[in-house]
Specification:
The protein has about 375 residues and is of the alpha/beta class. It is built from 11 helices and 18 strands. Strands 3, 5, 6, 9, 10, 17 and 18 form a 7-stranded mixed beta sheet that branches. A 6-stranded parallel beta sheet has the order 13-12-11-14-15-16, sandwiched between helices. Helix 4 crosses helix 5 and helix 7 runs parallel beside helix 8. The structure holds nicotinamide-adenine-dinucleotide and zinc ion (2 copies).
Length: about 375
């Protein structure tokens, strides 16, 4: 790739958490940040959520287009500066980022599936979405990639307006920061991808940040039984507080319970939100659903995995469905304001999902806590 330097007179300094390579750990560094060009915003970050996808970048399960990479793709902040001729924005606007960009006029945006916007093809390049030689961050002469074009693990960042969703200023940005990845992804995995409806029996496999959001979405959609599965007791206890009706430690127990609750039929929907998802997990979920049931594959695993152990004959004869879900099959520009409204009216619980907050310098600790299973969502607070 032909990397061009971002250096120019129109730059400022920021502190961000970067990965120098993968496998690696997040460490803070001083970064030079280019101020916004046309169609871009300079954002002063308020809060950034720690998502397992950031950890996938650190382990290398999901390969980044370039290193060093400034991490973070879930977050919220305040507009500090607006690019030239960039209409519709005011300094001081409150913004939640969407980890998937939405241009508004490609085929996918036009048909109401912004999560599949064509700009997403370069989501992991670290560059601008339209130009894979154009960076906004650098250290010395070396360009620094921005995760999902965002880099929420930075005090300031320059982003495309296609990644920014304006939200009501009266709502707390630290809580809303979860909407642009974890909560939108989990909620939509249940409501859109899983098509959960009244009286359904739903299994949510892995109840961290995404899974507890799927639990909330399923409960809100009227599911009769929401069975949370997680080997970690604290996760199971939290899921029960957020709308799960049952919580068990393994998918085998969930499978058995779902059959008991449905006269032997099996779960209507199983949503896989395991931190490091494998083909085995997907196969187990397929084994737990009823005829014509739906398995939603939301969790990510190593990019090299391509095997899912399923009995093809049984899969075909029982008309089961396996669907992938990116950002919960939701359009972020529509979904983020709706979720903010559900939060403000008490239908969506966000405060209860934030177990621990960190400073940017404590970010490595945050990922250790994620691995130890002691947090549902960790959030970096700026200032
Ligand atoms: N598709 C998308 O759009 C999208 C968006 C965001 C995140 N993700 C992916 O979703 C997954 C979950 O992310 P997260 O931030 O909620 O992670 P997390 O670490 O907060 O939660 C994962 C949970 O899985 C549990 N788990 C581990 N093994 C399990 C097993 N065998 N059975 C049941 N539970 C098990 C862990 O204990 C943990 O509670 C990650 O793979 C992430 O990359 C996908
Ligand atoms: Zn995420
Ligand atoms: Zn588009």
């Amino acid at each position: 790739m032909n990397k061009t330097s971002t250096k120019g007179s129109h730059t400022m300094k920021t502190k961000g958490a970067i990965l120098r390579g993968a496998p690696g750990k997040f460490e803070t560094a001083e970064i030079e940040l280019e101020k916004p060009r046309t169609g871009e915003l300079l954002i002063r970050m308020a809060a950034a959520g720690l998502c397992h996808s950031d950890d996938h970048m650190a382990t290398g399960d999901i390969p980044a287009g370039s290193y060093p990479l400034c991490g973070g793709h879930e977050g919220a902040g305040i507009v500090e500066e607006i690019g030239p001729s960039t209409l519709g924005w005011e300094v001081g606007d409150h913004v939640v980022f969407s980890f998937v960009p939405a241009c508004g006029h490609c085929h996918w945006c036009a048909i109401g599936k912004q999560n599949l916007c064509d700009l997403g093809a370069n989501m992991l390049a670290g560059t601008r979405f339209e130009d894979t030689t154009s960076y906004r961050m650098s250290i010395g002469d070396e360009p620094v990639g921005q995760m999902c074009g965002l880099s929420t693990f930075s005090e300031y960042t320059t982003v495309s307006v296609n990644s920014a969703v304006r939200v009501d200023k009266s709502l707390p940005l630290d809580k809303l920061s979860l909407l642009g990845c974890g909560v939108g992804t989990g909620w939509g995995s249940a409501v859109n991808a899983g098509q959960v409806g009244p009286s359904d029996t739903v299994i949510v496999m892995g109840v961290g940040g995404i899974g507890t959001s799927a639990v909330q979405g399923a409960a809100h959609a009227g599911a009769r039984d929401v069975i949370a599965v997680d080997p970690v007791a604290f996760k199971r206890e939290t899921a029960l507080k957020l709308g799960a009706t049952h919580a068990v430690a393994s998918i085998d127990e969930a499978n058995e319970l779902a059959r008991t609750l449905t006269n032997g039929a099996g779960a209507d929907v199983a949503i896989v939100t395991v931190g490091v998802t494998t083909g085995q997990h997907i196969g187990q979920a397929i084994g737990a659903i009823r005829k014509a049931g739906i398995v939603v594959a939301t969790g990510a695993g190593p990019a090299t995995v391509s095997d899912v152990p399923i009995n093809l004959l049984e899969f075909t004869m029982s008309e089961k469905k396996l669907v992938g879900a990116l950002y919960g099959q939701s359009s972020p520009m529509a979904m983020i304001p709706r979720l903010a409204d559900l939060y403000s009216t008490g239908h969506l619980k966000l405060d209860e999902m934030i177990t621990q907050t960190y400073t940017l310098d404590q970010i490595a600790q945050g990922f250790e806590d994620m691995h130890a299973g002691s947090i549902i969502r960790g959030v970096v607070l700026f200032d």
